[in-house]
Amino acid sequence: MMANLFSIFDPSATLSLPMNWMAIFVGLFILPWTFWVSSNRSGKLLGLVTSQLHMEFKTLVGTASSQGHTLIFISLFLFILFNNLMGLAPYVFTASSHLAMTLALAFPLWLSFMLYGWFNHTLHMLAHLVPLGTPGVLMPFMVLIETISNVIRPGTLAVRLAANMIAGHLLLVLLGNQGPSMTFSLLSVLLVTQILLLTLESAVAVIQSYVFAVLATLYSSEVV
Questions:
Q1: Which of 7, 161, 27 is nearest to 96 (CA)?
Q2: pTM, full prediction
Q3: Which cellular component terms (GO) are annotated to the entry (predicted)?
Q4: Which of 70, 136, 150, 214 has fewest C-beta within 10 Å?
Q5: In a 10 Å sphere around its CB, with 0-12 CB exposed, 13-18 middle and 19+ buried, how is residue 144 labelled?
Q6: d(Cα 207, Cα 197) in Å, to the nearest integer?
Q7: CB atoms within 10 A of CB 77
Q8: Domain spans of the chain?
Q9: For the segment 79-135, what is each residue's pLDDT rounded down to a tens digit?
Q10: Helices and strands (DSSP H and E) totals, the chain
């Protein structure tokens, strides 16, 4: 039972291993070709979404930021969103439920922010280790606490996304496995419950993509 339950997170359970991991790039082909060649996307839904995200991320990064500064975070949001939503489809591998993928997204971003900040704004980064108004006796402890909280950031980003994806999928599979042993009347209740859970998981997929992108944007704003 447990092996079947967690087999939904096995990259080789549905197709060959390379093909499943390549599924993370399907979102690139879902976008219409005009998105890549047309400079006027303001009238399209995706263009409206990206414009709204740009305004929000611009506020987090700084008012002097251009669209190029927020492009990486908008792309990150769309990339995670496509993978989260595709994982809700039957027999589609959910790459965002694996720490291998979420860490591959979080760790390089965090490392690049840290290297940029420490090499270009060393005093600013040192000031972040001691909050304003901290008593002198507590300063060594605050430096230690702030350093630890800084180091675990990529791990918390990765685990948050993967854990939320795993939890929802496990719940859907657990309820779905009860279908063969239920009567017809209970099956109708199960069907309604599954639809509601699928709707909830769709919302979670969007929210977790947004949270990941917003936190990455906040981390980048601390190094400038």
A1: 161
A2: 0.81
A3: mitochondrial inner membrane; proton-transporting ATP synthase complex
A4: 136
A5: exposed
A6: 15
A7: 23
A8: 7-223
A9: 899 888 888 887 777 888 888 889 999 999 999 999 999 998 888 888 888 887 888
A10: 11, 0
What is the spatial distance between Cα 108 and Cα 174, in angstroms, rounded to a whole number?
A: 35
Taking a C-beta distance cutoff of 8 angstroms, is the pair 184, 140 a contact? no
Q: What distance, in Å, lies between the first and last C-alpha atoms of the chain?
A: 51
Maximal C-alpha separation, the chain = 69
Angstrom distance (rounded) from CA 9 to CA 26:
18
Both structure tokens of 113: 């922010």
Name the residue type at position 61. Answer: V
How far, in Å, CA of 137 to CA of 134, rounded?
8
Dihedral sign for Cα atoms in the order 181, 185, 187, 193: negative
What is the pLDDT at residue 2? 44
Whole-angstrom distance, CA of residue 152 vs CA of residue 154: 6
- State how far the Cα of 208 lies from the Cα of 168, in Å rounded to an integer: 12
Q: Which candidate, 8, 222, 3, 17, places its Cα nearest to that of 116?
A: 222
Q: Which segments of 152-183 does DSSP mark as H helices, in order? A: 153-176
